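Title: Prediction job returns without error message
Component: structure pipeline
Severity: low
Priority: P3
Assignee: unassigned

Description:
Job completed but the reporter wants confirmation the result is attached to the right record. Sequence as submitted:
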Amino acid sequence: MNYIVKLVLYVCLFVNASVFGYCFYTNYNRFMSTQVKLADVDTTQSTPTANARVAHLNGSRYSHLLVYGGFFYERGLGLGLLAGHDFSHFVANRVGRLLYNGEGDTIKDSDYELAEKAWANGNPLEAIQLMRNYLEKNPREQHVALRIAEIYEKDLANPLAAALEYEEVLKQKLSPEQWGWTAIHLCNLYSSKLNKPDKTVALLRRIVNEYGETSAAEKARKRLDVQEEEAGTEEESPGEVEVEEAKNVETGKPRVETQKNESPSPVPPNNFNLQEHFDRFHQGSSPGKPANQ
């Protein structure tokens, strides 16, 4: 509602309520004084005409009393509703500013906006310091901490510092979705820039176990499946090889050699004399000829 219109309504309602309230008060006093006089007058000594005039006057004042009282109540109710509406809006705006802007300062003049201006002017370190000051005053606004990590990662090319910032954010009380996607981003830093596969797998499993109903957990499951498939193709455990050979023995299948370039060694005959073959080899004679020839 327009400010001028609201001010006019306030003035009109207040003036009307005051006028009708005054009229109600004066008529009430007159009505009550008339009742007192009627009680003191001896009706047996007065004429019927006088009694009729007094009764008519008393009824007229009573009707005026009801009219003025009704108008006063109506104007007072309207003034109260309008004042209550404005007061509730004032309290709601005040509480909203206290919750979202610290002590009620506007976002335009906050430290966070100054930090963003410093970042836009090419001063990322100054921006980080201003954001840390703002975060100390407003610890619940963790989006500022995520912004600090983003500046470390993209503007300063320092993934280690960015990972430390993300780790601190994960220690705070966040919503399940926000926690999950922050952890996913940290996993990306672990795997792509910091070469920490163990921390990556551990954090992915934590997302799945603790925040399994979030969309971030679905992405974590897919990444874990991909990593398990890659690990299975790189190396095959000895236990799996033994199980496969046992299955081949049970089904009668021949054993499959894993080395293709290695040829099987020849099996000597049963009547082969190793010592005689060794002596003939050193004497330069073939195995089919006698050694003394």
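Comment from assignee: result matches the submitted record. The radius of gyration is 49 Å.
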